[in-house]
């Protein structure tokens, strides 16, 4: 099939390659003309045969919304926009409604795969009508991994991004699970070679997984992780997962723990712990330690 | 090699089979004479050539300690006891010291694999001296999975069970991670087929894992998990992981969340929440809802 | 001063009484004509001298927004609306802007006090311009507790409800703190009379508080809390606090734990724990317990 | 009454004063001879009339155990030892059994009050037989606050320290509750004067408490808490509370959150978060940000 692809960064660029390798025709557009196949969004749209399919692969939020709005002006009846970025599912219905007024279809698609996707395929979770999804199905088939799994029509518009959001929430918590285990094993003297313990878990255990494999890779490249700082950003999707849980009265304590650990990792000092320290000072005895036992003293609280 | 194996239940019985399939001679002992190869612990020991190696595969705690104590009386200089059960690592050093007085070696070995171990091999994490481990290495090689990974000499005595304990702690939290995601996806109307979303994640995603595969199997066998109750026991190892974290001032919020979720799943009613409800009643307004808006009322707290 | 008061339920009714006891003139309006001082919002507004001050004390959300919208049509230049309900702070700026177009001022006021407020006074946290607050200050002075504390001008529009929201978030977590301690003391045989332990804490301890006093009252009225179910609703403010934390990258683990405990208290069965149980069944051994030790078996995972 | 008092540090010294102010005779012993009333434990014991009562007020753990052991050698039939330190309740039964062999009674007593205790009295939670408690009741009456509350016979030996332990666990979580609220209020621009908001809460609110009063004091002394580091030690009792919860399958998520926040406050860098960052780097895209939108890129995971 032929499709337009907006955003040719690390993700979009590799996806273009994978689509072309599968025999599809991709007209890419990127502000960076060095990598762009077209000079403008309008130029890209013009180069596509009707019905036109445009895949948007730009950062979530305002940028996605403005690109989709602009496409609403450029496309027409029977065309289709696919939002493959990390948009919040709540944006999808608004985008779909706006495009629908002009007869343009909309499909939202959560994409997972990172730098490994070019070779191994991208996991795809998409939402929309069966009719619209059929228009982009050949691209989905090319992008997904070769095996039996890796793509799903999750439901109506928004279901793709919602599913991808939950995927990322789970990812946060699974990563946190290994990280806690690693910190504990590192801390005790009893265990000599923590990396080898983690490596051994790659087969035969209940916890074997791709993230475990990645962590072992990282430990091989940087033993003890001495070169890396314990600092982690969060993309929006962990936050949205917790918020969706709250909106639906679903407790997500492990996912939330993972999210909060990231928040805290980015603080130089913790205001909350200042308040704790301040209260401890007030009821006293915690700043000063008295003399040697048994002339010592029972800590007062 | 030849070895004694105490405990021929679901785990021990399958391990005997896997060892024999690999050409080793196993003299098993079990109180259930229908499955036992010997009439008593003493009989089993007598049937083994020296230096004798006995693998203990009985439930953790008092039973393991009493079996090992009895073996201390039956074995002698140069013999070896392997504790393959889910013992707490703090037991290992006591057992090793007790046996050491008689010149008997000790190796602790955490074993993972469940009902899949017979076919796929058991993941093994063991602790002890290199000399003692050499005596049982052929059995380790037969039990472990065929691939490159799946067994590790984790460190001194206790390191095997400590590593296995942390493995299980991670397992709790990883399971909790998927479970939270599943509950959230189930709760929203937006996503039509949650099982298909989970199935799609088996390839190409960041969160692909064996536990995910198992969950998809379970969802296929019992769609919506309507036949299963939301109730989970905990073996000791999740508790011990959290306690080891506390002893070492290592925060394990995701693992702890998973443990607490199991505690709560087993309560018919929550005493803590009774106290919450009681306090809410005291400051009032929560039991009674006043008339229709705008004659309604702002909830007071 | 004279003011209109919309909503004469449990909170609004008592506040009218407290205001009148302080010598103020209150024209109340409620859909329930038995308790209303006016026949309609329009009638209430008409009865007030200019500049008119109307205090809205209805449930948060749609109802508050519709009452304020209606007041926007009835009031005029120089008049003032006070929203004393549990509105989300994000509503305040929208309401203020809408009223501002007609020259009507707006003050948001979080009110705490419950059924005790009539006698002891209501804690007030308000937001808005100094000029607008001056117009309603006599009412604030009448409603607040007699002591030195209990009311605050927290900041611009929205700051009152934001502060009240955080107050409630803290309240959730403080209640959860006592509740956890109570459950633990109840559970152990060692402590004979848990109520007396809690009662003793009312003086001399670090944790003495009004909520503790309330819990002791509740324990006196219903020893062991045997008559109450461990079930707790949540008003929106706990959720909003956690969400505000997430929006600001502020970790609120104790408040979140309290919120999640309420969610879980309302579930008959936990979908997440169904998923845990299902995974445990898959890797096996957890549904079936094997024979007597030492013929027993080590639990596999 | 007359009693010996071992340990005259900040707590013990003030308790001696309060006991003397109430007319009791105290023979204190401290290694620091400048403050001691006796030259040795033996000297102190000798100075007491029979039956002798000795209150031990030294730090928990090894020191307490060794002092009590020494007293076991110095005291005799009918005498009494009171452990007023922060001992773990599990120590109490061992100490009581050891002393019981010599006919010496034992009472455990958790003491709360800090630097405020001298003036306001100490909250006391004690465990032991009624007979033994009667022997030290006059001292309890002198030490406790003057009001109706503040002391309790919680149960058998160990119940005092268990109750005090739970008190401290609750204290951790209540402090964390205020701390989280404070951090959130500080973070947003909307609220102008966070200290004034906290101060207002001292009356009329659901969350008024002594700890709130202390936090306001601290905020007055050091506005914004700019001079204090967000670092908090933990005495053993928070840990023991969580462990006692785990032993009894009682979930304590808020208390645990408070404990973990302290652990994390003491880390320069978080090993767990290093592991998170390392995994994120492995699946890529998180270290590098691509060009300007729409030539930008959707974050891959």
Automatic annotation (TrEMBL), chains A, B, C, D:
Residue stretches in coiled coil: none
UniProt GO molecular function: NADP binding; phosphogluconate dehydrogenase (decarboxylating) activity
Pfam families, per database record: 6PGD, NAD_binding_2
KW Transport (keyword) present: no
PROSITE patterns: 6PGD
Start and end residues of each 6-phosphogluconate dehydrogenase C-terminal domain: 160-287
Tagged with keyword Zinc-finger: no
PANTHER family: 6-PHOSPHOGLUCONATE DEHYDROGENASE
Identification of the protein by name: Decarboxylating 6-phosphogluconate dehydrogenase
Species this protein is from: Nocardioides islandensis
């Amino acid at each position: 099939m032929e499709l337009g692809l907006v955003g040719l960064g690390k993700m979009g660029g590799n996806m273009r390659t994978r689509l072309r390798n599968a025999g599809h025709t991709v007209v890419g557009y990127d502000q960076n003309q060095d990598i762009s196949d077209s000079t403008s969004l309008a130029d890209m749209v013009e180069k596509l045969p009707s019905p036109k399919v445009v895949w948007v692969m730009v950062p979530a939020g305002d940028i996605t919304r403005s690109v989709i709005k602009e496409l609403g002006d450029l496309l027409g009846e029977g065309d289709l926009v696919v939002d493959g970025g990390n948009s919040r599912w709540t944006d999808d219905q608004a985008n779909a409604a706006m495009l629908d007024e002009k007869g343009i279809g909309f499909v939202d698609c959560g994409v997972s795969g990172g730098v490994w996707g070019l070779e191994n395929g991208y996991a795809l979770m998409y939402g929309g009508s069966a009719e619209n999804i059929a228009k982009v199905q050949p691209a989905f088939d090319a992008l997904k991994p070769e095996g039996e799994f890796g793509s799903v029509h999750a439901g109506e518009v928004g279901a793709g991004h919602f599913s991808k959001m939950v995927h990322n929430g789970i990812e946060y918590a699974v990563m946190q699970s290994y990280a806690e285990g690693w910190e504990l094993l590192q801390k005790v003297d009893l265990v000599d070679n923590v990396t080898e313990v983690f490596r051994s878990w790659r087969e035969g255990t209940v916890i074997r997984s791709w993230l475990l494999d990645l962590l072992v890779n990282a430990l091989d490249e940087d033993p003890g992780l001495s070169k890396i700082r314990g600092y982690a950003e969060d993309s929006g999707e962990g936050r949205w997962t917790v918020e969706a849980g709250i909106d639906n009265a679903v407790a997500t304590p492990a996912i939330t723990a993972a999210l909060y650990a990231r928040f805290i990792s980015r603080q130089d000092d913790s205001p909350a712990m200042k308040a704790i320290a301040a209260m401890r000072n007030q009821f006293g005895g915690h700043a000063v330690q008295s003399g040697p036992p048994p002339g010592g003293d029972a800590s007062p609280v």
